[in-house]
Design brief:
With about 200 residues, the chain is α/β, with parallel strands linked by helices. It is built from nine helices and seven strands; from the N terminus they run βααβββαββααβαααα.
Length: about 200
């Protein structure tokens, strides 16, 4: 029997707002949530109260909310924190999908807890929620030098890398039933074992 305590009822995709950023690497978390919305017919609508775009629907029989903050990445907490509080969703029931510099494109990892790891979106969320939410880390690769990071995350990946990221996101989306039903460890095993 699944552990109801850890079932995911809020899935957040981090990114930057606006068309100019939609296809940039920093928006990898958004791509995951957009894929789920498409997969399960969940309509995402502007939700100005919470500085985001949100939707609610059934994923594999469970009631789940999706959220894309429309703040810039370093202000993600201004959307995520009040949204989770309003709907009384504790961190243990949240999955936050985000880009990960320290993993190559095509690598995807699910983890629970931990620090912000230098990620500006998480940096703005963790102080308000604590670290106990689940994270889907989507590898985007590192440009090699610290001063090139900003340009790297805010630019589009070449088609070969984009294809690897899309395949990894597709793999994770295929494990969503485990997540929403609280089988976090099994989801972790299957997502983290993925090889491009």
């Amino acid at each position: 029997m699944s552990d109801r305590k850890t079932s995911i009822s809020l899935i957040v995709g981090l990114g930057n707002p606006g068309k100019e950023y939609a296809q940039t690497r920093h928006n990898a978390g958004c791509w995951f949530v957009e894929r789920l919305a498409e997969q399960y017919g969940i309509v995402l609508k502007a939700d100005p109260r919470f500085h985001g775009i949100s939707g609610r629907g059934h994923i594999e029989g469970q009631d789940v909310r999706l959220l894309l903050p429309t703040t810039f990445m370093n202000r993600s907490g201004q959307s995520v924190v009040p949204f989770a509080r309003f709907y009384q969703i504790s961190p243990q029931h949240m999955l936050i999908a985000h880009d990960e510099l320290d993993m190559n494109p095509g690598i995807i990892r699910l983890k629970t807890g931990g620090g912000h790891g230098g990620h500006n979106g998480l940096r703005d969320i963790v102080p308000h929620t604590g670290p106990d939410f689940h994270r889907l880390r989507i590898g985007i690769g590192h440009p090699g030098a610290r001063e090139r990071v900003s340009g790297h995350v805010l630019s589009k990946a070449p088609a070969s890398e984009q294809s690897l990221m899309d395949d990894a996101i597709h793999h994770a989306a295929g494990r969503i039933q485990l997540l929403v039903n609280g089988d976090i460890q099994q989801a972790m095993n299957q997502i983290n074992a993925y090889k491009p």
